[in-house]
Amino acid sequence: MTLGDPSLQLLFWLPAQGRHTDAAGTSAVLPEEGAPRKAVEVESAGERVGAIVYDAVVLPDPALVRAAGRVVALAMERERLTAELLAGRAALRESRARIVESGDLERRRLAHDLHDGLQAHLVVLALRAGQLAVRAAPPLAEQAEAVRADAETAITELRGLVHGILPALLAQRGLFAAVQELVDRIPLPSTLSLPADDTALPAAVETAAYFSVAEAVANAVKHAGAQKLWVTLTHDSRRLGIEVRDDGVGGAHLDRGSGLRGIADRVEALGGRLSLASPPGQGTRLCVELPCES
């Protein structure tokens, strides 16, 4: 459409949802009364199909815009179907993202409760049992020592459980510190590259990123027969990039096992992308991109 207004915008009316969207399916609102930008409704066969938003300074005569609207009404009706489909996809992505974020919030709450609640009680129990073992006479001393040992075992197992739910370092110091600690524990020669900018990221992004790295590292150590591992994280104002690469046997596939598939689902739910290249005999390269705009 050429009306001499480069800022002109077509919006599409979605009757089932009672809102306008742009061509990408993103919700849009018509200009308010008195605003410098104006809107003209477009109809096809007596039904509203959308609106044309324009600059009233460039196009002071709304009749010209209405005439253009009558010309493009049929084309807008076709485009509206596409916008409606895209809006449905966007709503689905938003719903999936909310589910992931809600799950991560519950994950953090559970890890906190286990660490500060049950684990603290077990530590106190172990201390009291140890004191009793020192002061009491047999056979009570032996029984108290057994309780202390059992409590210590339970504490160790609980720490492993809490770490699997959400590493304490991730919650306390963020993604980059947690990845550094993870790579330091890898029993392979490893190269880690982290961004100089350690700006805090959204919690859901940090969780998805950490478990993406952890899954790729676990696969390299357990299944790939790798001799070396490279982990690279990059970050700018809009995206977080992750690359985990090994020199192992390759042959990894997203559809084999639930680990990588679960990571892919989590990444996609947050609007990100995951790619896996793993030709047989040539190592594996996992790449993840996550949007991280605040």
From TrEMBL:
SMART domains, sorted: HATPase_c
SUPFAM superfamilies for this protein: ATPase domain of HSP90 chaperone/DNA topoisomerase II/histidine kinase (SSF55874)
Cited InterPro entries: HATPase_C_sf, HATPase_dom, Sensor_HK_TwoCompSys, Sig_transdc_His_kin_sub3_dim/P
Domain Histidine kinase/HSP90-like ATPase: 204-294
Catalytic activity line of the entry: ATP + protein L-histidine = ADP + protein N-phospho-L-histidine
Gene Ontology molecular-function annotations: kinase activity
EC top class named in words: transferase
Protein origin, superkingdom: Bacteria
Keyword ATP-binding: yes
EC number(s) reported in the record: 2.7.13.3
Keyword annotations from UniProtKB, A to Z: ATP-binding, Kinase, Nucleotide-binding, Phosphoprotein, Transferase, Two-component regulatory system
Database matches in Gene3D superfamilies: 1.20.5.1930, Histidine kinase-like ATPase, C-terminal domain (3.30.565.10)
Name used for this protein in its record: histidine kinase
